[in-house]
Amino acid sequence: MSDNVDDSQAAEAKSRQTALDTVRCRPRGQGPDMSDGTARCRDCGEEIPASRLARVPDAERCVVCQEEAEQGRAESEAEDD
Ligand SMILES: [Zn+2]
User: Fold this and answer.
1) If you average pLDDT over residues 31-48, what whole number do you get?
2) Over the chain, what is the mean pLDDT?
3) If you measure from the C-alpha of residue 39 to the centroid of ligand 1, how many angstroms do you get, rounded to a whole number?
4) How far is the CA of 44 from the centre of ligand 1 (A)?
5) Rounded to whole angstroms, how far apart are CA atoms 56 and 21?
6) Distance 81 CA to ligand 1 centre (A)
7) Residues around ligand 1, an ion, CB closer than 5 A
């Protein structure tokens, strides 16, 4: 009975750690799309706010796309690897 709880907590912790690792251990900081001189999200093309770039200078995506990417990556991690 308690196994289900343990599994759930372990999976949640693993998922959270994966997201942290994704942010911390970027392969190579490509940074945002600067092709037109403006820092833009590589996914949706929206301008990335300066406040976000101040915190994450090599951010490749806006906050919305980054969250989606991290969630999708965590869920499909087994397939990617
Ligand atoms: Zn975006």
Assistant:
1) 94
2) 80
3) 11
4) 4
5) 14
6) 24
7) 41, 43-44, 46, 61-62, 65
Map tokens 């999976």 to a residue. Answer: 11
Chain centroid to Cα 33, Å, comes to 16
What distance in Å separates the CA atoms of residue 41 and residue 46, rounded to the nearest whole number?
5
**How many whole angstroms separate alpha carbon 79 and alpha carbon 75?**
9
Residue 1: pLDDT band (50, 70, 90) is low
Distance (angstroms) between ligand 1 centre and the Cα of 13 equals 26
CA of 75 to the centre of ligand 1 (A): 19
| pTM for the full predicted model | 0.53
Please tell me the distance from the alpha carbon of residue 53 to that of residue 60, in angstroms, as a whole number: 9
Residue 13 CA to residue 2 CA, distance in Å, equals 17
